[in-house]
Amino acid sequence: MSDLRGNIAIAGIGEVPTGRYPDRDCIESAVQSAYLALEDAGLDKDEIDFVIPCGTVYQSAYNSDLICSRIIGEMGLKNVTSNAQVFSGGASSATMLKVAGSLVYSGIAKHVLCVHSDKLGTGLSGQAGIDLFAYAGIHREWEVPFGQHYSSIAGLVMNRYMYETGTTEEQIAAVQVSNRKWAELNPNAMFRKPLTVEEVMASKMLSTPLHAKMSNMLADGGASFIVTDASRARELTSTPVYFLGEGARVTHFSLSQEADITRFGYADAARDAFERAGLSPKDIDVAEIYDSYPIFQIIALEELGFVERGAGGAYYLDGKTWPGGELPVTTNGGMSSQGHTGGGGGVALLVEAARQLMGKAGERQVADARFAVVTATGGTYVDAQVEILGTEIP
Amino acid sequence: MSDTVQKPLPEMSQVAKPFWEAAREGRFILQKCAACGKHVFFPRIRCPHCSSDQLDWVDASGRGTVYSYTVVVNNAPSAFINDMPYVVAIIQLDEGVRLLSNIVDCDPAEIRCEMPVEVIFEKLDEQFSLPKFKPLT
Questions:
Q1: Do A160 and B130 touch (CB under 8 A)?
Q2: Predicted ipTM of the assembly
């Protein structure tokens, strides 16, 4: 069991709406979400002693500002000992939480502000977004020259997964419908109109068999969370969210070098996480499964042990993951419906897991949510990150 | 127009120079570890299996099968817009290693997982010829 189990907690969360906000500066999304997290935790800004800004990808100059303590300067934080960026692409939620938790547990920090914002929706043109991601984490010697990019990555994974499991395109499309059902109830989501499998299948083909509406949409957004020790969290709030366990594996750099693109490292990561938490998948009330593309949301759900291999697509199609279903999955709508804010897609999911456990999820609140699992992965799905959180320490 | 966008050349690493020199001559070579006997791709400084620095360059079959593939028909990176539709594939080489490439010289609709393929070289410029694959005949 990890020493962090039950000793670390998320005391507050904050988030600004995700979408296209040309008049909202990237720094504003960061600062506003940070203040929402402070208010949620009942913490004064000058009690923050360590800041972890996640990486921002829309503009390298802005990210340099973050590395050089812009958050501290903008908020006028008086008692910060260190500002240290933690950035693992889409996996940053998990790595920020682990680093923040370890800093608190070791006594180096007391109240850690983890903050993310990006402006991928309006800070870049559509084609510039495609081109940016044609290099992000894609090997410049062995993959970029062949036209690899994120749509082709999703297409490669879908084709092999469908070949091995017999899953259909319609079943994969059903993940988007499930995510949209949740986003309809999420005021911070970018897309909230109902969506059908037929609409997903009728959208233009990008990279076979990936359709446009199986893709995420780049967006502007920001989210923050505050990590402290469990006893301090109980003093601050009536709704502390305890860190119960984590497991993770990094399995490749370039997608072509992944041993199994239909599984990745989720099974090993999940086994560790559940063992460390002292829980099993059947104890989980809400599963915040990282998407970015629906195929990854199916693979992770299966590999974590919630459904059998090859049965994930049908599970989504049958509505088991919808509001009111047997296993609420990705309850903020995921990056397909809430929006893709770079490293923030995972941060938004982690914040959503905490929100559900705090009982603050409004119309989409999962009743009596006690235990949540949240996953993340970065780059070309280089890693499998699994975190387990709870309202109590089992 | 997109046709003014240059194709990205491989950002050549020092360790991979022999690969690109051989490719220019139409030869497909791979690293092979003298210590553990395994083939290695992409080219490494040390063997990723046993950490040995005894990585030799050996002639390779240039044959393999399609592990997975996708046909890019929309929203390609700028430099590839004029190539659409094009096929991106992961090739499982007979030597046990995988690489990313394009499948050419065939109807994309006929490509399947596990289909046998063989290497051909496509000249990008005086320095670089890219290893691409076509169905094995």
A1: no
A2: 0.97
